[in-house]
Amino acid sequence: MMNRTLAVFVFQLVLSSIVFAHGNQTHVMGTVTNISESSVSVETTSKKTVTVNLGAATKFVKSGLPVTLKDLKVGDRVVIHATGPEDKLVASEVRFGSVPKEGMSGMDHTHP
After folding, report:
1. Residues of the chain below pLDDT 70
2. Helices (H), the chain
3. Res 6: pLDDT
4. How far apart are the first and last CA of the chain?
5. Could you give the CA distance from residue 62 to residue 98 in angstroms, rounded to a whole number?
6. pTM greater than 0.90
7. Domain coordinates of the chain in residue numbers?
8. Hey, CA dihedral for 62, 68, 94, 37, is it positive or negative?
């Protein structure tokens, strides 16, 4: 029972983290409020707006499948993996859509 309580607490802590660093990457979680060819703005649950720049190497993943920027819509919930200082973040990957139940490999936050 203690392990389950601890797991629930950790899960809630992770969900409450909006912008957090992991290794050399920053993760931005929230709802898309604006999309341009060069950036995506996200409103976090703390109502802070974070703008993340897009580069030629930025990957887009919807429900575990590779897609393009045009598939991302205002209102989508996202997790963006980015590098750089907080005021100049550049997205390496933008994940949105539902997570496939089998594997949930997209939720692995390990980095090489």
Report:
1. 1-23, 99-112
2. 2-16
3. 42
4. 34
5. 7
6. no
7. 18-100
8. negative
